[in-house]
Amino acid sequence: MTMALFSGSIDRLTAAGVVISGAAADDMEVDVFVLLQGARAFKKEIAANTDLLNMSESSNLKEEFLQSLQNLKVKPWLDFFKEAKELTTVRIHICGLAGKLWGGEKLEDFVDIADDICGIGEYITSAQEADVHLFI
Amino acid sequence: MMTTQELNDLKADLVVDARGTACPGPLLEVKKSIGKIDSGHIMEVLSSDEGTKRDIPKWCQKKGHDFLGVIDEPGYFRILFKK
Q: Structure pTM?
C-alpha cells in the first residue's frame, strides 16, 4: 500500500494512523509519503503537541474530538505509526520540498520513525506499483 | 457455523481481552497475539467494539484461520477462531 499523506491536521493524521494499523494487521507493506502539510506534523517539535495541530474540518470541535479520543483510549496519532512499524514493514518518506517548507532540511529534523527524505519520483514509482494507493 | 452451545463448550488456548479499546485496538491485539498460539489452537477475543465482530472474521478469512463464531455477552462479545 502506498499512502500520500498530504494533510497535517490531527483528525486526518488519526485517520491515516487507523488505516495504517489495519494494513499492519494484514501484514501489508506500507510506504507513506509525507507531503506538504504532512511534513510539518512530522517535525520533532510539532508531532506530539496537539496545540500546534489543527483540524481539517470542524475546527471548533477540536477539544471535543481530542477528549473523545482520550475517553475511548485511542492512542495519539503518532503512536499508530510507531506500532504499525513494529508489526509490519512501514517506510515513512518525507518529501524533500515539503520538509524545506517547514525548515526541515535533514532527517534528524523529523520524528525518529521517519526513514528518509525523498523526491517525487520515488512516490510516483511507489504509487504505480502499489495494489492500494491512498491520498489523505 | 457452530451453535452458541458448541462455542460455549470450547476451551480457548488463549484469551485476548481487548475490552475497552476502540477500533483498531482489538484487531491489533489479535495480530500481536497470534504468534503466541500454535496452529490448531483456539483464540478467544473479548471485545466491546461492535466493528470487531466483522473485522475478525474477515481477517481470519484472509489469514487462513478458521473463524468459529461470536457469543454475545452483556456489554461485550466473545469471538472465537482456530489458528
A: 0.90
